[in-house]
């Protein structure tokens, strides 16, 4: 008996040796910073002097802060426009790539390229594309006799420029759609055909219902990823012109690392955290209403 | 009927090629711009093809900025991150895939739930911690965390380890293997595809990372490739031709890895859909 117990104890200790670095990592790099951040959000802190407790003042300041509102508006603008465009492009791309034709791998690679290279290099490239006098965008427009805007230099066009660039970033959406498309049983398509339906009917009554969980997954992943956009805005516009591309994370960055207001920046970050958390929970709750799950036997 | 089928194939190809042109044009523009003279880049009307092709841009790009140095820095940081992630996440993934022991599921869920915490929440306390340790403008903040596991990769690798039957591990123990040897000789060889996926993801994430180098590195000699790219435009006038050449070189390893390991990439990417 004690032998078995000793063995269990030894195995447990061995396993803890395996997982110990990960547990330490979670504490040091996630949980302790998270709690510290919550504490800092209740203080005024500039790194040099020690934090001064000010209660909920940071949150009160935040609600009245015009730049905070601006950054929320900009982030919603960016996500609200980019998300549907990306979903549609990704769905079309996935349907095309799902066809059994030759050379499909090459097309998949090409459609994926903007996604893996996303970041500084691509942002700089698009900065040149959007250059008002000799950039590719306005040169093409001039070809059709259209006088293009100043793009990144124009407060009205700066955000649309970033949206155009980011709309091609469909890699992950596309792959998730593809996986979804491949899970649709072919006999259902045949059934529609037998009932006299055409391609469109197949798409509308079989593909879309089957894809709803996947669409939903993409929306959740997409929002979480897009709300955290930073590099592109930093590299292309630095948040300008006239704060037109000051997205939320950009604002946290400015407050924390340019103005050294670590306390206020922490409260901004916590607001983001709570919004993301609520969004995730809410979307999972709502999903039950309009998402088709095969195992649930149809609409619930 | 036959005509209908070929019609749909033609339609598919038309859309595929149309899409491909839209997606690849920026890259063609990048490459051709990197071979132009400043005058050609700024020429109105616009010409896509450089004339003549100016190969020196690629040499000059390394001269106007210590780009070779940036490249070396990025290579070191990326390799050490991959090493760290592989060691810490395989160990943890193995531990969490073993027979039930007290606290196993609690700690696993704890680690998984950390995926919900956005980086913006933890970055400020971490920055303060590193600055108290005197680690600002060193590579510690960019490398050290990888040696302490990463929730998603632990999850991914554990999924693969779970497919190994307990009997196999038990048999090795009976044959006199130490727990580490069981992990090394029985476990690891069976999860190679997962390790390739994790390596690719870590490579892409670290190589393309901009935010961490931006906040932690001050002296240009320590810059990574992505941070270094922004230095080309910091001096008032932007030398687009050097910048485009440097961007092309910065993206090169990403292209090579993506093209050669595409299969693993797609597989891992589809799995990462579980992340949300």
Report the structural category of chain A. Answer: mainly alpha
Count of alpha/pi helices of chain A: 13
What overall form of chain B do the CA principal axes indicate? globular
Mean pLDDT of chain A: 88
Give the CATH architecture of chain A: Orthogonal Bundle
What summary fits the major beta sheet of chain B?
Answer: none
Counted beta strands of chain A: 2
Span between termini of chain B? 44 Å
Structural notes for this entry:
The complex is a heterodimer of chains A (300) and B (276). Chain A is mainly α and 300 residues long. Chain A has one domain: MetI-like (MetI-like fold, Orthogonal Bundle), CATH 1.10.3720.10. Helix content of chain A is 72%, strand content 1%. Chain A is built from 13 helices and 2 strands, in the order H-E-E-H-H-H-H-H-H-H-H-H-H-H-H. Chain A has a two-stranded antiparallel ribbon. In chain A, helix 3 packs antiparallel against helix 10. Chain A is globular, with a radius of gyration of 25 Å. The termini of chain A are far apart. The C terminus of chain A is likely disordered. With 276 residues, chain B is mainly α. Chain B has a domain of 167 residues: MetI-like (MetI-like fold), CATH 1.10.3720. Chain B contains 15 helices and no strands. In chain B, helix 4 packs across helix 8, helix 4 packs antiparallel against helix 11 and helix 4 packs antiparallel against helix 13. Chain B is globular and about 75 Å long. The model of chain B has no long low-confidence stretch (mean pLDDT 88). Chains A and B meet through helix 1, helix 3, helix 4, helix 5 and helix 6 of A and helix 1, helix 4, helix 5, helix 6 and helix 12 of B.
């Amino acid at each position: 008996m004690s032998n078995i117990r000793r063995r269990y104890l030894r195995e447990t200790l061995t396993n803890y040796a395996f997982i110990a670095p990960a547990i330490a990592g979670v504490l040091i790099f996630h949980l302790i910073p998270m709690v510290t951040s919550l504490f800092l959000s209740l203080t005024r802190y500039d790194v040099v002097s020690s934090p001064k407790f000010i209660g909920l003042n940071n949150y009160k300041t935040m609600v009245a802060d015009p730049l905070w509102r601006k950054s929320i508006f900009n982030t919603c603008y960016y996500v609200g426009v980019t998300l549907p465009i990306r979903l549609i492009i990704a769905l079309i791309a996935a349907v095309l790539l799902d066809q059994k034709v030759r050379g499909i791998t090459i097309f998949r690679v090409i459609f994926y390229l903007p996604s893996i290279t996303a970041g500084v290099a691509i942002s700089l490239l698009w900065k040149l594309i959007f250059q008002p006098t000799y950039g590719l965008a306005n040169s093409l427009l001039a070809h059709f006799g259209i006088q293009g805007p100043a793009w990144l230099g124009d407060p009205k066009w700066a955000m649309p420029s970033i949206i155009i660039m980011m709309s091609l970033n469909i890699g992950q959406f596309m792959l998730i759609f593809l996986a979804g498309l491949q899970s649709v049983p072919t006999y259902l398509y045949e059934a529609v055909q037998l009932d006299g339906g055409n391609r469109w009917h197949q798409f509308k009554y079989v593909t879309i219902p089957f894809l709803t969980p996947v669409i939903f997954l993409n929306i959740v992943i997409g929002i979480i990823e897009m709300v955290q956009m930073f590099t592109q805005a930093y590299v292309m516009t630095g948040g300008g012109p006239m704060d037109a591309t000051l997205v939320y994370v950009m604002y946290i960055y400015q407050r924390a690392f340019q103005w050294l207001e670590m306390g206020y920046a922490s409260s901004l970050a916590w607001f983001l955290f709570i919004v993301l958390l609520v969004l995730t929970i809410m979307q999972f709750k709502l999903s039950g209403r309009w998402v088709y799950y095969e195992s649930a036997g149809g609409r619930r | 009927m036959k005509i209908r089928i070929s019609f749909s194939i033609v339609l598919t190809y038309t859309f595929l090629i149309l899409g491909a042109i839209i997606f690849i044009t920026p890259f063609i523009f990048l490459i051709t711009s990197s071979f132009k003279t400043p005058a050609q880049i700024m020429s109105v009307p616009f010409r896509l093809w450089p004339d003549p092709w100016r190969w020196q841009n690629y040499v000059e790009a390394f001269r106007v900025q210590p780009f070779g140095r940036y490249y070396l820095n990025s290579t070191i940081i990326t390799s050490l991150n991959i090493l760290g992630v592989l060691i810490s996440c395989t160990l943890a993934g193995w531990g969490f895939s073993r027979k039930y022991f007290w606290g196993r599921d609690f700690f696993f869920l704890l680690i998984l739930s950390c995926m919900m915490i956005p980086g913006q929440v933890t970055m400020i306390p971490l920055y303060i911690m590193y600055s108290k340790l005197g680690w600002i403008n060193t590579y510690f903040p960019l490398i050290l965390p990888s040696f302490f596991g990463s929730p998603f990769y632990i999850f991914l690798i554990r999924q693969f380890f779970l497919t190994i039957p307990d009997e196999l591990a038990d048999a090795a123990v009976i044959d006199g293997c130490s727990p580490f040897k069981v992990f090394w000789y029985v476990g690891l060889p069976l999860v190679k595809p997962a390790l390739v996926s994790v390596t690719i993801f870590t490579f892409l994430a670290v190589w393309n990372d901009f935010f961490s180098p931006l906040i932690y590195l001050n002296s240009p000699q320590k810059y990574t490739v992505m941070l270094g790219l922004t230095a080309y435009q910091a001096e008032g006038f932007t030398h687009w031709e050097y910048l485009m050449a440097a961007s092309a070189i910065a993206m090169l390893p990403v292209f090579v890895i993506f093209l050669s390991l595409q299969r693993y990439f797609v597989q891992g990417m589809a799995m990462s859909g579980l992340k949300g």
